Amino acid sequence: MYNNQIKISLKINGQENTVHAPPDISALALIRDILKLKGSKEGCGIGECGACTILVDGKSVNACIMLAAQLDGREVLTVEGLNNGEKLSIEQNAFLENHAVQCGFCSSGLLMSTHALLSENPNPDQNDIRKAISGNLCRCTGYHHIVKAVGEAAKQSAGDENNE
Amino acid sequence: MNKTIEYIRPADINEAVNFLDLNGNNTVTIAGGTDVMIDLRSGEISPEYLLDISRLPDIHGIGMKDGLLHIGAGSTINIIARSQDVYRFAPSLTKATETFAVPQIRNMATIGGNVAHCSPCGDTVPSLLVHEAYAVVHSISGVKHIPVSDIASGPYLTNIKKNELISSFVLKPVTDSQFSNFEKIGRRKALAISRMNMAVILSKSNNGTVDFIRFALGAATPVSKRIEEIENFLIGQKPVEKILWQAGKKLADIMVAISGRRPSTIYKEKAVQGLFLRLLHPVINCK
Questions:
Q1: Does B192 contact chain A (CB < 8 Å)?
Q2: Is the pLDDT of residue A1 over 50?
Q3: Residue A93 has pLDDT above 60, yes or no
Q4: Residue B150 DSSP one-character state
Q5: What percent of chain B has a predicted confidence (pLDDT) above 90?
Q6: Counting Cβ atoms within 10 Å, is residue A163 exposed (0-12), middle (13-18) or buried (19+)?
Q7: Pick from B240, B75, B71: which is nearest to B171 by CA?
Q8: What residues does B242 pair with on adjacent strands?
Q9: Considering only CA atoms, which of B10, B224, B228 is closest in space to residue B118?
Q10: pTM for the predicted model, two decimal places
Q11: A116 contacts on B by Cβ (under 8 Å)
Q12: d(CA B26, CA A124)
C-alpha cells in the first residue's frame, strides 16, 4: 500500500475538480473509485478492449492504462458528459434507435469513440467508422448495428448543423 | 506494509536528467505510459519514482532541420501518422503509425517509448532503421547520438542507460526518386502485435536495376535489424517478381538462421517471403 497522495486538478465533463489520489493509480480508477463516475467500464485492464475509453483534451484514450496523474490540468470527457440532463446525445440516441446495445458493457467506450470520430470527421464513411471503433471490442452484437448507429449519428449531427 | 511511490514531473530536460542521475536505478520514466501502467499493476515493476516526461517541451515537435527529419521522442503515434513532414520525408513511418494498434493507443503511445521499450515487435523501428535514424540522448554529461540500430541489445533489453533520456530521433529523409514502404502481419487488422514487420527504401537506376536499397525486418527476430544480405543481393538486379521471390526465400532462410526453428516457423517462412513480395511489388513496374 502506498501512503502518499498527489493533487490532481482536472476539468471533467465541464466541471473543475481537484482530488487527492495515490500516484500510481490509473485514470480509470480515479474516475470510477474517487470521482464515482461508473459509466466508464473496466474490461481487460490492459488497453485492449476499449470499454474504458474516455476523451482527454478531445482525444480518445484507454483510461485503464493511463496514469491518473497524467490527467492533471487536462480536460476530460466521460460518457456521463455526453447527455444534457435527461436529454440523450445524438450518439446515445442513435445507439438506442439502432439496437446497438446488447449487454451494454462496451457501450460507453463505443459512444466515446463515436464522439471522438464525429468531432474530427462529421462525414465518416463505413471505413472511417470501422477504423474509429477498431479499439472497442463488443462480444454480443457482431458490430453490424453499432456501425449502423455510428453512421446514423453522423447523419443526424450533420443534419443538426444544417438546421442551425 | 507501506511503500511509497513518488510522482515527479520535471519542468525541463535538464531537471529530468539531473533527477535520473541521482535516482535512475529506482525510477521508471513515463511518457505515453501504455506499458508502464500495465507493468505497475501486474507487479512487473515497482519503482520508487515515476518520472513523467510527457510534458517536457524538449521532446516534442516534428520538422526538417539541416536536411534531416527530426521527430520528438514524445510525439504520439497519432501525431506522427498525421504529420505532413513525416508523410513527405519518411512515408513508411506514416504507414507504420497509421496501422499501429488502435486510435486510443495511438493517442497515448510515443515513438520514444516504442523504441526504448525494445519490444522486438515495435512497429516504428524498421522504418527508423531504413532511415538510418539516430536517437539524441541526454544525460548530465551532455548530449550524444546513438544509432537506433544500437539501442536494443535483445528483446526488452535496452542500451539506453538508466540516467539517460531520448529527446528525439533524427532521420535521413527519402528523396523524390526513392520508393519507400512498410508492411506487417498481425493476427487481426487492429490491435494485433506484429508477428513480422518490414520497411524498405529503394531506388532504381535508368536501366531499371536497383541502385540503392535499405531493408529492415522486425518482430520475426529478437531485435529489429537491417538485413544486409538482402540489400546486397538486390543491388544491381532488376527487381522483377522472380528475383523478389528469390530474395524473399533468402530472407526466410536468414530469419530461421537468426531465430531458430520454432513451431511457428513453418508458417513464418512462407509468410515472410509473401510479405517481402507485397512490400516490394510496387517497384516492379515503377521507374
A1: no
A2: no
A3: yes
A4: G
A5: 79
A6: exposed
A7: B71
A8: none
A9: B224
A10: 0.94
A11: 103
A12: 46
Alpha helix positions (H), chain B:
13-23, 36-42, 77-81, 84-89, 91-98, 103-106, 111-116, 125-130, 228-234, 241-259, 265-280
Q: How far is residue B253's CA from residue B245's CA, in Å, rounded to a whole number?
A: 12
Q: What is the pLDDT of residue B120?
A: 80
CA distances (Å), A104 to each of A40, A131, A135, in order? Answer: 11, 21, 16
Which residue shows C-alpha cell 537468426? B258
Number of residues that this document lists for chain B: 287
Taking the C-alpha atoms of residue A50 and residue B97, their distance in angstroms, rounded to an integer, is 19
- From the list A5, A12, A11, the residue with the least C-alpha distance to A40 is A12
Q: Are A59 and B32 in contact (CB under 8 A)?
A: no
Return the higher-pLDDT residue of B194 and B44: B44
Helix or strand (DSSP H, E) at A148: helix A144-163
Q: Are A40 and A64 in contact (CB under 8 A)?
A: no
Whose cell is 446488447? That residue is A102
In this prediction, the answer to ipTM > 0.95 reads no
Residues whose CB falls within 8 Å of the CB of residue B236, separated by 6 or more in sequence, listed in order: B209, B210, B211
**Which residue is associated with the grid cell 529503394?**
B202
Q: Is A48 an interface residue toward B (CB < 8 Å)?
A: yes
Q: Which residues of A touch B113 (CB under 8 A)?
A: none
Closest-CA residue of chain B to A132: B103
User: Is B105 close to A116, i.e. CB distance below 8 A?
Assistant: no
pLDDT at B154: 85
Q: Which three cell numbers stand for residue A64?
A: 485503464
